[in-house]
Amino acid sequence: MSVESKKNKRNSSSTPANPRRVAWNCLQRWEQGGVFAETLIAQSATALSAQNRALVQALVLGTLRNLRWLRHLCDALRNGRLESSARWLILLGLCQLYVLHKPNHAAVSETVSLAPPRFRGLVNGVLRSAVARREEFEDEVSRLSPGIRYSMPDWLVQRWCAEFGEQEAEKMLAWNVQTPPVYARINPLNPPEIGADWQALSDIPGWYRLPAGGLPMDDLKNGRIYVADPSTRHSVRLLAPQPGERVLDACAAPGGKSVAMLGATHGDIELLATDAEEHRLPQLRENLQRAGGRNIAVQLHDWSSPCPQQWQGRFDAVLLDVPCSNSGVLQRRVDARWRLQPNEFERLADLQLRIISCAAAAVRPGGRLVYSTCSIDRQEDRAVVEAFLSTHTDFRLVEDYLALPHREQADGAYAALLLKQEY
User: Fold this and answer.
1) Is the separation of the CB atoms in 288 and 298 below 8 Å?
2) Which CATH number is correct for 230-420, 3.40.50.300, 3.40.600.10, 3.40.50.880, 3.40.50.150?
3) Is the Cβ–Cβ distance between 328 and 373 less than 8 Å?
4) pTM for the full model?
5) pLDDT tens column, 94-141
6) Catalytic positions, written as ranges
7) pLDDT per residue over 7-43, tens digit each?
8) Is 1.10.940.10 the CATH number for 14-144?
């Protein structure tokens, strides 16, 4: 290697990464498929400051959350063929202008500076035109179809309109293009000092909204708080674990609901937490130990297969948070709306019915089971419960609850409490 090459390499390695370039690279990698946006951000932004990591996250997730509308703007500004890298850079600039509301000069100049010479002039022209036509595009928004306005696939818009009505569906669509807040649940076994900028949720004791731009890492690492959405409380509330009970969290990783059950019982339950993915077990175990669990076990099991004999009829309470479409958490999981296909609901419902049928064998007579999802789709929720009850007459539905995100101002979720009869 020449002296000049060594010098260039040394200089480039010591230069802090440009957060906009990192975001641009993440978006191009995301288009190739196979990796979630959150994973790409975590992998790409490790060397950045907390402020720049937050900017990368806002850029990537803001672009993907508003992707269909931003593509509409791009097409209106550039009527012609664009290579993929140029299109993603323009979308990144439009996100800064129209979603994050960055100053015009900074959004344009910082974005254009990333472009290679072959399309730098194109990017500059499109973004300057976007600045000039801002009022036109903002006036146009209300006339766009809901799918474009709220960046959602048309088939899903139609599905929600049919299930919830047009007014409710539009409120839900509007909710899903907002940036979600970060919530944390206090661990009553090891409570933290409450930060002055933490916002208590007046109607949900023990929950706080955390400030944007950084998490209290020391409290997280020491198990004093657990980051989770308030919607996760519904399944634990219905299950109502009691001190001294044997409890199974069947699809437990990363452990949020198990941690909540430990907190609700002051750690006085015999808890078995299982998951179907072996690589998730170490983190699950660590989270439960940090939360103060005393009598806990973590094991590998896929509940789409039969209940092992040693667990049959053993548990007072079983929490079953099944794999689902994530249709209730599209605001938070930006990949899901673009990954989900109409035929997925039928496939998932078949899997969910198989899982609840297998896990039900672990409930003792007189015990209870809570079936939960982070879906708001009836085919995955009440319809699965009804299909299960039609073939398991020893169970009955006590109560269920559907949390619609725009009503709760939190993630969407479903939970159903089932009671197994005593013989």
Assistant:
1) yes
2) 3.40.50.150
3) yes
4) 0.91
5) 999 999 999 999 999 999 999 999 999 999 999 999 999 999 999 999
6) 374
7) 444 444 445 689 999 999 999 999 999 999 999 999 9
8) yes
